[in-house]
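Re: the multi-chain job from yesterday

Posting the exact lines I submitted so nobody has to dig through the queue logs.
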Amino acid sequence: MIKAGELVKPGSTQITKTGAWRTFAPAVEHNKCIKCSLCEIYCPESCIHQESGLFVPDLAYCKGCGICSHECPSKAIIMVLEEK
Amino acid sequence: MQNLLAPGHRACAGCSMPTVIRLVLDAAGTNTIVVSPTSCLEVTTTPFPESAWVVPWIHSLFENASAVASGVEVMMKRQCKDTNVLVIGGDGSTFDIGMGSNSGMFERGHKVAYICYDNEAYMNTGVQRSGSTPFCAHTTTTPAGELSLGNPRPKKDMPAIALAHGVPYVATASVAYPVDLRKKVERALQTQGPSYIQVNAPCITGWTFDAGTTIEIARLAVETGLWPLFEYVNGELTEVKKIRRIKLVDEYLKVQGRYKHLYKMPGGAEILRSIQDIADKNIAMYKLVD
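And the result, structure tokens for all chains:
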């Protein structure tokens, strides 16, 4: 929590893990991926990033909106119902 | 892609506005100061005591973002600093509430890039009609029912208002065309003087469409001719995004809940034809098809 007189830090919303909002989670089939990076560009949560050349969603923040799955030209991302 | 908007912001799942901000900031870079009026953007990215912004960001009131940006620009010039000053605001503050200070900023010629993400109503407060709401769209203040077919007035032509002020760079963009959007932001920031870019940003809550189709809806708006992508430099139309295969407005309207009354109620078919007329007029005016 912030104290009086302190400044709000840049990018500090990261303490809130919005992944808890999710019903469906994206699952990436990396062998189908053509590395177009459209999922990274369109993701509103900025949670898809490259890890050693593979596009990986950060499930701590992914709200499960499904934009990446819908826009993927090679249908490499499917949305799976998540059981918690 | 550099990431200048942190995750963890509270925008709805499937909102296009954070994507717009990410693309704009990616083009503008870190040497940027952003001013925002009250909007979804302000509420979702800065829930106290947190902020999703990585670049300096300031919010004052609903109506004075352009006035604040003018002051920031003058001060940066006084300190001999070459910093990009951006206003990123919604359509409510751009078209209605902040109109006076926008007009002042355009007329005084401050070097500020004004980016309007246009979701066509006051989505933050619960989908009330704004000056940007298109013809016959359902909102909570223009509900479709026995006595009404939705918003009775056409959309305000804000790019024309900016052009009438002699704004040297005026463009429309869409979240579905990221390369085009980035290029336009770069050109706006190189302009000596004010610039105005209006970006189509579908709202999942207000327009009510299927989750995940946000970008597709924005693309359909362009492909049907209802959202022409154009660019005016010094008052001259310099660039228009041509459409390879034009689609009927029906394809765009039938997937949105805010137009579903047009398919059920008497008189709806006539309205659909007049919306097609708006698209046809755009297609002819901007020569969208070769």
